[in-house]
Amino acid sequence: MNVLVYADVQSPEIHQTITTLKRILVPHYTVQPISTDSLLTQPWQPSCALFVLTASPTRHQEATSLTGNAAGVVEKYVESGGSVLGLGYDVGKSGSAPGFGSDLSMLRDGKQFRLHDKKSGNTVYPRSFSPSTETPSTHVHILESGTTLALPVHSSSPQPNSESEFESEVTNLENMSNLTVLARFEPSNAIAGLQMSIGSGKAAFWAERVDLPSTITSPDAAFVSSVPSNGSQAQEQIRPLLPALTHALQSLGILVPASDVHPSNASKPATITSKPTLSHPLPQFLFSRPKEPEIVQDFIRALFPASHSTTGKSPQVLEDTDDTFYFHMAEKGEKIWLMFTSAPLRTKTADTTAKHIILSLPPSSYTPLFDSSVFFEALQDARVEVNALDDNTPDNGWSLGDLLLYGPLVTSTQTMFDKNPRFLSGHPVPLLSIASYQLQGRGRGKNEWVSPGGCLMMSFSLRAALGPQFGANRLVFVQYLAALAVVEGVRAVFKALGSGTSSTASSARLSSGLADKVKIKWPNDIYVELDTEKGVERKKIGGVLVNSSFGGGKVDIVVGIGLNVLSLPPLASIAQLLPPDLRPDKVVEHTAASIIATFDVMWTDFLNNGGSFDPFMELYLKRWMHS
Fold first, then answer.
1. What one-character DSSP code corresponds to residue 281?
2. Using H for helix, E for strand and C for coil, what is the string for 593-618?
3. Higher confidence at residue 258 or residue 527?
4. What Gene3D superfamilies does this protein's entry cite (predicted)?
5. What are φ and ψ of residue 339, in 5° steps?
6. For the chain, which domains are there?
């Protein structure tokens, strides 16, 4: 789900708001700016968990910049069940605020953003907050938790009597049946935060900009540019007011992860075991299944045809459009890894366009979230299940999954392929890339793909000759094929859980029934049907992204798959279908192996049938989630 921050203009405050919300909510939510044009033209509402409005800390008693048709769209979103959070706003009740005649006339003309609750008949309008000069507030008190937080000293010039003027409306506001006071200023007792029901939705407004650094009320470009890329300085400044922001989010039903949002300052090598705090990619490891170590050597020789040995110059460098690849020999692996996982990090080392790849099987201590030995064993078992035996290995010497590029923390498995044409067209296929976390995960179009812990993220490269037997018009079916392989791969994992030696007949029936809850939503999204108190709810757990590049009578294809396997709520995942006693260890590795083995067989059949989807149509329709 998305948290959308309204950005009619670019400003340092908007940048800081997005940065702060990302540090708190990612990877459970995607935090993105949204423009007026996108509000009016894009179907953003179904995937929006929260819409955020921010007021400038240097402008007081101004209505929001959300006007006209855009205001109407957001109003309908809230009335239909959406949530809005206003930061830096108090609210006025229509008809009760003296001195705001111009604002009210705009309300009557429908030009300005307002919220109207039909049930109570109340209409309110947000306006940027201004602190009082007569009774300056020093603290904000959160009523539910009893927490009292110190406020920053405002450097801006407040409007005289503004807070006391707002206080004159308190009686009218607090008598509103659809309003709840969340926090108060001290010592003035004025409302600092409130929440109200609007139709089927909710809105909360906090007078203080609890999302901005507490030591600065009017951040400028110089401040924003000085914040380290990992946000550590900003987070330390925000820390005093973070409980208020967290409470604001939770009051609107946003599930805030319990883990600490502050990056570690430890100088020891990093271990990626949970939500990563590093802002740069780590080295990746290129290795093959243990029985065929020569595959890596063959890969490097093909990628660097001028080099006759893989033991010569290290690193071997490939400069490409988006990234520069550095391939390091195995003996350099520990040195390279420690250089990237030890603090402080040098600027050169933190370059996200440099892709450092170590040609060796990684030590398990470097990759606690992915066990390569389990993956290769599961891949062999899955191939047996789908009748993909070793004698079916293609002429180039290896099958999909035999050669693996793994990274604990990468920019994007998909971008590494499709934004680097030299690497894409020059390396022998197939190559599978798996990551535990992504910094810039991609979905369809311009969408971000949230990369939570327990999510399987992988991309793989394929190549096919174009001609009379296989035309470019057949490529549209690859996304359908991949989506079908994901569902069939997951179903195979579920069925395996119910067929083990320790499984009971009831667990076998249960696992088989759960397999039927994994569906394809056309064209390439993966959904599960979860049993809830409200009945069966359909929730997205994954998707497929396919990119193609043409040249020399062939097509290079990159298939990207994102699948929530062990992800925690509010995200839906495969594990949430399973009772605890049926959740196996290393389920991410087993799921990846099952999907890869399934797709490899389907891809071979697809090519052998000239790119026809007919052999798969019946099964696709059977797995299709009908609306």
1. P
2. HHHHHHHHHHHHHHHHCCCCCHHHHH
3. 527
4. Bira Bifunctional Protein, Domain 2
5. -65, -30
6. 2-251 (3.40.50), 285-623 (3.30.930.10)
Tell me which DSSP letter residue 330 carries.
G
Q: Among 32-41, 212-221, 331-340, 566-575, which stretch is predicted with the lowest mean pLDDT?
A: 212-221
Cis peptide, bond prior to residue 158, ω within 30 of zero: no
Q: How far apart are the first and last CA of the chain?
A: 20
- Tokens encoding 27: 């990877």
In tens, the pLDDT along 506-525 reads 555 556 678 889 999 988 89
The tens digit of pLDDT for each residue in 173-212 reads 556 677 888 888 888 788 888 888 899 999 998 887 766 6
Residue 593 has pLDDT above 90, yes or no: yes
> How many other β-carbons are positioned within 10 Å of the β-carbon of residue 424?
23
Distance in angstroms (rounded) separating the CA atoms of residues 33 and 13:
12
Structure tokens at 470: 């296989």
User: For residue 552, what pLDDT is reported?
Assistant: 92
CA nearest to 451, candidates 466, 435, 431? 435
The owner of tokens 């009774």 is: 135
Strands (E), 225-296: 284-288
Backbone angles phi, psi at 284, to 5 degrees: -110, 165
Q: What does the CA dihedral 429, 303, 421, 313 come to, rounded to 10 degrees?
A: 140
CA–CA dist 257, 469 (Å, integer): 52
Q: 249 near 22, Cβ under 8 Å?
A: no
Radius of gyration of the chain (CA): 27
- Is the pLDDT confidence value at 96 over 60? no
Question: Nearest Cα to 546, choosing from 536, 555, 558, 561?
Answer: 558
Q: What is the DSSP string of 173-234?
A: HHT-TTEEEEEEEETT--EEEEEEEETTEEEEEESS-TTS-TT-SS--HHHHHHS-TT-HHH
Tokens representing residue 166 in the block: 């707002």
State residue 295 phi and psi, 5-degree precision: -60, -40
| Chain CA centroid to CA 344, Å | 27
Q: Which residue has better confidence, 620 or 98?
A: 620
CB neighbours of 500 closer than 8 A, spacing ≥ 6?
none
Distances (CA, A) of 222 to 206, 331, 333: 26, 43, 38
For residue 430, the model assigns a pLDDT of 97
Is the peptide bond prior to 430 cis by the omega test (within 30 degrees of 0)?
yes
- Buried-exposed string 19-58: b where 16+ CB fall within 10 A, e elsewhere: bbbbbbbbbbbbbbbbebebbeeeebbeebbbbbbbbbbe
In the predicted model, what is the mean pLDDT of residues 485-502? Answer: 80
| 326 compared with 63, residue with greater pLDDT | 326
- Angstrom distance (rounded) from CA 458 to CA 433: 5
